[in-house]
Structures are given as C-alpha cells and as structure tokens.
Design goal:
Elements (H helix, E strand, L loop, with lengths): L15 H20 L6 H18 L13 H16 L1 H34 L1 E5 L9 E7 L5 E13 L4 E14 L6 H11 L7 E7 L5 H21 L1
Parallel strand pairs: 2-5
Antiparallel strand pairs: 1-5, 2-3, 3-4
Helix pairs in contact: 1-4, 2-4
Length: 239
C-alpha cells in the first residue's frame, strides 16, 4: 500500500508538483482500500495526516499529540526544529502554504469517504448480549459472526477506562481464542456455557455477540468497528 511519511510536508524536496504527486498517490490508495471496504489501518492514518495538516494550516505549528505512537518525542523535537527553520524562510513557507491549500480539501473529501464507510459498516452490525449479563462488563467474551457463514470468532475482551479532569476515555483490547463452527447444537448460548466450563478465570463473564449483516473483511473493517461498537454498548450499560 502506498503510504505517506509522517513528516511528508517538510521531508525531502519541498516542491509543489512533487508533493502533489506524493499526496495524490496516497489518496488514490486510500480510496482503493475503501472501495474494497478495507477501512483500517488506512483510515486512522488518513485522520492523523489530516489533523496534522489542519494544525499547521491554523497555527503554523506541529503538535506532538497529533502524531502517532511510532514517532518519539526526540524525533518530534528534531522535526519541530526543521519546521521552525522552514517557517522563517518566506519562499519555502510559500511553497508549504500552496501545498496545504491544495491538500486540505482533498484530505477532507477522502476523510468523508472513510466516515461514510465507517457509518455503513456500523449500521450493518447488530450487537446483543449472550445469556444473562453480569454487573461487571469491562471484561468478558466477544463473539463475532461474519457474513455469510456459520463460523463464530471468539475473543476475550478487556475495556480499560482512562479519566482526566474533563473526559472519560475507554480503550479495548482483544485476544483471539478460537474459531467455532456453529450449528443447531452449537448456539451462542451453548458456546458461552462451554467457555465458562473450560476457562475458570472468567466464572461469570459478560458475553456479547456482534453479527455482520453484509460481507466485510475481518481485520480491516469488521473486528475494529465491532470493538468500537462494543465499547459504546458497554458504556451505555454503565451509564
């Protein structure tokens, strides 16, 4: 997949035509991924680049919090020094501003395409509890049923809650346990009972099933959006 370096605006040759070529190739790749309903990881990457671009456009400044985990604080500080020198160079800054003016609406359009795909996937997922749901919801099992087919992907999930002065954030991690072939005897309820018997560390687990109503790639769309849907569902239960 064609990728865009984190510091693509300031890296290498600062030339409008060259940056335009890099950007158009990257956005074409993103749109191709969306056309195949492969939302991740390209959508996260796209959002990161768009936020960075808007920060530069509005504040003429790079913001560390907008960068992904793969860039260290030391790397960011080096990048910031380079950018400060560019800002002081009127001719180079003019090139940067031309690139930003060209790139911003294209990023915006592509991000909207990604959002539309995300909302489409979300609308075609159904989430429901399996059996009796205990009071504690932040750890348990997630059953994932792709369409079409009679297989259930079984995950252990853990939701972590982070709080600051203003907001509460929830993150989720999953571990794949097994793939189970469903049948008349192997229902979701039976599968939950079987897991409780086999795995004593979760004697009374919260268990939820997410069912896809349309065909979706597992790793690039179904699983990541199912995880986010589960976080929202559990948050409503806790409210």
């Amino acid at each position: 997949m064609s990728t865009l370096p984190v510091n693509w605006l300031t890296e290498g040759l600062i030339d409008f035509e060259y940056k335009k070529y890099l950007l158009l190739a990257y956005l074409q790749t993103a749109r191709t991924e969306f056309a195949h309903q492969r939302l991740y990881p390209v959508f996260s990457d796209l959002l990161m680049h768009y936020r960075n671009l808007l920060q530069v456009k509005e504040h003429k400044k790079l913001v560390y919090e907008q960068f992904p985990e793969r860039i260290s604080r030391a790397d960011f500080e080096k990048l910031e020094l380079v950018y400060e020198k560019i800002v002081e160079d009127d001719e180079t800054m003019q090139q940067i501003e031309e690139i930003i003016q060209f790139a911003a609406p294209l990023f915006s359009e592509t991000v909207e395409e990604g959002k539309e795909l995300y909302e489409f996937v979300e609308r075609h997922l159904e989430i429901s509890p399996v059996g009796i749901t205990p009071m504690y919801h932040n750890e348990g099992y997630l059953f994932l049923d792709a369409y079409p087919g009679k297989e259930t992907q079984v995950y252990v999930y853990r939701i972590t809650v982070f709080e600051n002065l203003h907001e509460k954030y929830r993150g989720i991690s999953t571990e794949h346990l097994q793939t189970v072939r469903r049948g008349l005897a192997q229902t979701h309820e039976h599968l939950k009972v079987q897991l409780v018997r086999e795995r004593q560390q979760l004697p009374n687990p919260a268990t939820f099933v997410v069912v896809a109503k349309v065909p979706l790639p597992l790793e690039q769309a179904l699983l990541p959006i199912a995880k986010r849907s589960l976080v929202k569902y559990v948050a409503r239960l806790a409210a």
